[in-house]
């Protein structure tokens, strides 16, 4: 069984891409027996906020309810951000909770990593999207396809803008959150993590399109920086000024009502894969 420390937003933290990225006009091949084994014994199906919203909309349940019923929640040891992954069913050999016999019960809303398989997605800090082929363990019929055609078959291009938005938001947060953890008292750290869970996963209504709901926030998914809390209209008391301000000219505020928000920059690279 995988430990929580082995899983982060990019999936398994020990993964390193060793194969080249594929062009959208390039062909690839893989073998598939249609047996559903790629959904069995899995503990590393990590969800984005958009993935959770899609599943919740499919089940007609609030996002938080779906997360509590079907997911494991943790804080990534590398990213220091909230990480949500499908909780494997121990009684069924750690299978995906949505695996019914050999089929996916939420196929129309399956997570990105499942829709892509055996491909995987990589997004750079600049928002460039690439795909690469993962090794498969299955036998069976050999399929050949062009990357672009395979992506279109599972409507991946239609969600790319949302996936880029999510990846860049997470990349923007990673280094700043790690630095702030050393500055915050435990009570403020817990408040910050609650805000992160809310902003990344739980604040989205399933009856409304996902991406427009991020429009009230800045381009990195957070409200623009200011000296008064946008939630309490300045009623709170600013108790902490970020010592990092000298280097990045950013202010972190947490008021006495628990309202907090942070403005960050982009960092590193984000990978979505099975």
Question: Layout of SSEs?
Answer:
Layout lengths: L6 E2 L2 E2 L14 E6 L13 E2 L1 H11 L3 H8 E5 L6 E5 L12 E2 L2 E2 L7 H5 L2 E6 L4 E5 L7 E6 H7 L2 H26 L4 H17 L42 H4 L4 E2 L5 E2 L7 E4 L2
Helix pairs in contact: 1-2
Describe the structure.
With 274 residues, the chain is α+β, with helices and mostly antiparallel strands. It has a domain at 187-265. Helices cover 28% and strands 19% of the residues. It has helices spanning 49-59, 63-70, 112-116, 147-153, 156-181, 186-202, 245-248; strands at residues 7-8, 11-12, 27-32, 46-47, 71-75, 82-86, 99-100, 103-104, 119-124, 129-133, 141-146, 253-254, 260-261, 269-272. The chain has a three-stranded antiparallel beta sheet. A hairpin with a 2-residue loop joins strand 1 (7-8) and strand 2. It is globular. The two termini are 16 Å apart. Residues 217-274 have low confidence and may be disordered.
Q: Whole-Å distance between the termini? A: 16 Å
Helix content: 25-40%
Question: Which percent band covers the strand fraction?
Answer: 15-25%
Instruction: Give the strand line-up of the largest sheet.
Output: 4-6-5
Record field, number of beta strands: 14
Which structural class matches the secondary elements? Answer: alpha+beta
- Largest sheet data: 3 strands, antiparallel
- How many DSSP H or I helices? 7
The average pLDDT is 78
What low-confidence regions span 5 or more consecutive residues with pLDDT below 50?
217-274
**Radius of gyration, in angstroms, nearest whole number:** 20 Å
Order of helices and strands: EEEEHHEEEEHEEEHHHHEEE
- The geometry reads as globular
């Amino acid at each position: 069984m995988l430990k929580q420390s082995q899983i982060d937003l990019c999936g398994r933290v020990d993964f390193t891409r060793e194969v080249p990225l594929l062009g959208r006009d390039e062909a690839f091949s893989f073998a598939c027996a249609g047996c559903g084994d790629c959904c069995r014994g899995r503990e590393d199906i990590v969800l984005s906020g958009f993935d959770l919203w899609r599943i919740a909309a499919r089940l007609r349940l609030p996002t938080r309810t779906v997360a509590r019923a079907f997911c494991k929640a943790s804080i990534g040891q590398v990213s220091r951000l909230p990480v949500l992954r499908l909780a494997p069913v121990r009684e069924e050999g750690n299978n995906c909770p949505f695996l019914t016999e050999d089929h996916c019960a939420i196929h129309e809303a399956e997570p990105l990593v499942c829709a892509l398989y055996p491909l995987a997605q990589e997004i750079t800090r600049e928002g460039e999207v690439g795909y690469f082929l993962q090794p498969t363990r299955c036998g069976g019929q050999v399929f050949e396809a062009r990357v672009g055609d395979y992506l279109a078959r599972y409507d991946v291009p239609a969600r790319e803008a949302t996936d880029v938005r999510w990846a860049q938001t997470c990349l923007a947060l990673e280094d700043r959150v790690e630095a702030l953890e050393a500055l915050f008292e435990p009570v403020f750290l817990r408040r910050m993590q609650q805000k992160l869970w809310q902003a990344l996963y739980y604040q989205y209504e399933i009856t409304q399109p996902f991406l427009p709901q991020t429009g009230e926030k800045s381009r990195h998914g957070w409200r623009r920086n200011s000296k008064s809390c946008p939630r309490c209209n300045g009623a709170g008391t600013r108790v902490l000024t970020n010592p990092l301000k000298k280097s990045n000219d950013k202010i972190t505020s947490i008021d006495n009502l628990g309202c907090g928000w942070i403005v960050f920059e982009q960092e590193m690279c984000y990978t979505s894969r099975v």
